[in-house]
User: Which sequence fits this backbone?
């Protein structure tokens, strides 16, 4: 997943022709996030947690930081799978 994202970001060659900086490359940033993919990853984390995986195991499996896995685990405990379905 990380390699694919890196490849997509590195091959971004579209220019922003509608701004005053015509011809300058578009900034790669938050607008490129795959929100559906991120949601799917959080829900996969919930499934792993339900099967007894630790936060570290979830982080390694999904290639995210341990902090992200920790936040997801806390949200899962507090609000269930529904809490993980939203952005963030």
Assistant:
């Amino acid at each position: 997943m990380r390699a694919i994202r890196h490849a997509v970001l590195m091959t971004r060659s579209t220019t922003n022709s509608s701004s005053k900086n015509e011809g300058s490359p578009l900034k790669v940033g938050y607008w490129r996030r795959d929100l559906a993919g991120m949601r799917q990853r959080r829900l996969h984390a919930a499934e792993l947690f339900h099967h007894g995986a630790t936060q570290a195991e979830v982080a390694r499996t999904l290639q995210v930081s341990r902090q992200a896995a920790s936040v997801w685990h806390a949200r899962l405990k507090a609000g269930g799978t529904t809490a993980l379905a939203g952005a963030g």
Q: What stands out?
A: The mean pLDDT is 76.
